[in-house]
């Protein structure tokens, strides 16, 4: 009998110190604008979207100082520009009664940002760089770009976790065992500080597809240990037929699994063995 994957709700909190870091970054971007006014002339002037604006300005300086921008740098510029444009679009809708020129300034900045984004997308549309192909696949579902990324992966030329994360979404549909192989690499090579807890739910969905419900339970439980996600315990338990003794055993395995991730010993762990299939074992 097919069972549905347990529904999880995530809660996130913004730490106060991030605001302090943002203020420091804001000052840095102000200095950049003062020394490089051409990098900021098209941006709005007030304090709205300061994080997005600061990231964009700092990365524009990176591009200015690069002899020849790399595909990854152009990809990052596209992302920062998107975030800025999306933020200033919302800000442009806020009407200033006492200072209508602020609204007009944001509206101008939004119009220019959309044009700049479109021009950069056009400029990079035929670039075969893996990061730019990934961007076109991600944003436009461009099939030739998707094929470029898949081919690069098959040749062993993809190591960036965000690109691998896109690839694993593809392989979940066409080759679940290959998806597990990608997750195995991510779990084994990603430092715990950079580990994405959503990968655990991704693995759980692969095992659900293959109807390995004990592993669905295990990886879902591991996700709850790393996050503040809330889980329906009855629904989770139903995955293993309500077997409380088995649940206790799997709970302990989930704790061990998380400890292996934290210690950087996942590649040699029992958790890694679960992701190995005959297709994934290399001589």
TrEMBL record:
Domain of life: Bacteria
Name assigned to this protein: DUF2989 domain-containing protein
Organism listed in the record: Shewanella aestuarii
